[in-house]
Amino acid sequence: MEEKKSPNEKLQEKFSLDKKSSWLSFDAAEKKKVFAFAEGYKKFIGISKTERLCIANVIKELIKDGFKDIDKLTKVDSGDKIYKNVKDKAVLAAVIGRNMKKWQLIGSHVDSPRLDLKPLPVYEDSGLGMIKTHYYGGVKKYHWVNTPLALHGVAFTKEGKKVFVSIGEKDDEPKFIIPDLLPHLAKNQMERKAPKIVEGEELNILVANIPVDDDKIKEQVKFTVLKYLYETYGLIEEDFACAELELVPANRPMDIGFDKSLLAAYGQDDKVCVYASLKALLELKNPKNTAVGMFVDKEEIGSMGDTGAASLILQNFAHDYVCLTRLSLGVNQLLEVSNAVSADVTAGMNPNYKDVHDSSNASYLGKGVSIEKYGGGGGKYSTHDASAEYMAYIRGILDKEKISWQTGELGKIDIGGGGTIAMFLSKYGMNCLDAGPCILGMHSPCEVVSKADVYSAYLFYKAFFNE
What we know:
By secondary structure, the chain is α/β, with parallel strands linked by helices. It folds into two domains: 19-112 and 266-465, 3-Layer(aba) Sandwich (Aminopeptidase), CATH 3.40.630; 114-240, Roll (Aminopeptidase i, Domain 2). The protein is built from eleven helices and 20 strands. The strands form four sheets. It has a nine-stranded mixed sheet with strand order 1-2-3-13-4-14-18-16-17, sandwiched between helices. A six-stranded antiparallel sheet has the order 8-7-10-5-6-9, with helices on one face. A three-stranded antiparallel sheet has the order 11-12-20. The two termini are 45 Å apart.
């Protein structure tokens, strides 16, 4: 016989919060959808490791779904689908709603920590061809040694030809690597503090070993490297100054765990939100308000630059939108009444390092999309703080659609913190908060998410667009 609950137990159930694993809320059919969604995501992120590749793949999906280039249009109406390509490194897309005077906007960023080639990177040392790099974004530099790397990017020849480079993703292609110091000789290295175990100037890539058989050439291995680049791509040494060449982990997205419930890959911060919000946008049919997807670059260094969230690309897109819809309102009026979500990941509770988290205010893998009122550092620096009214509005969407969700902070107050694009969206006066899956190993060459959280984020983004 089931034991009766006391009045206090019933009251506790009413006012206490007990977040369970979202896996328990899925029936068999829904679990199949979770795993199927993850398979599509794995394919996308596997071919979208750099910002240029990611934007190209986003635009490819938009065009396939019928989105039109805004630069080729003179007018748009409700139901139309448009996009704007910003220098191949950012894109904004919209499904025009029945009410064109308000936006439901979701913004995410396409860049991830990586190693960029220096302007004059090729040199020879100890009989080896080497390439110098400059790390991009917040990294633990020691993560990148002894890690197989692939090279991607673009360069321009002196004649103005644009050259695309991609080496290391296919099984039969060579990879690149930064050789670490062996433990037998690392006594002094191991006495360094963690940020200096590997210095920035030690992130040099091994690229060749065969010298040219010519005594008249001083640096014979460097010669073979430059000769290969010239014969394969038409590049000369000076062309590196007119290039964006990036080294990224060569690993492929993979399932983790006996139950395959987790997914590991490079660049999930923030391409997991890029994919989830893109899929949500593509599946919209007839939204009440105009749904806008914003995919920007440069977030990992503060969103600065002409394709970052701190630039005027959103304002410029809004201006184009107002002109094409022929609305009798200003850009400022449109943006001020709109709602926004900064779609970005947050830190998940790591069982190996629990001391950096406030356990009651941490996000946990498998408990749904994480909704965060604010981010930033101690004292709420460098962040946006969403209003109580907007938090209540978002909770209403989640509860109405029965979407698993959680909330929290990115670590303990004086330990954690991190920026997103929320503060750049909210500066226009629109409502905004952060929402996305929590993640383990953020900014490492191999980050981990729960497939349940990825799917919950997608469901939330879709529900938000449809509000």
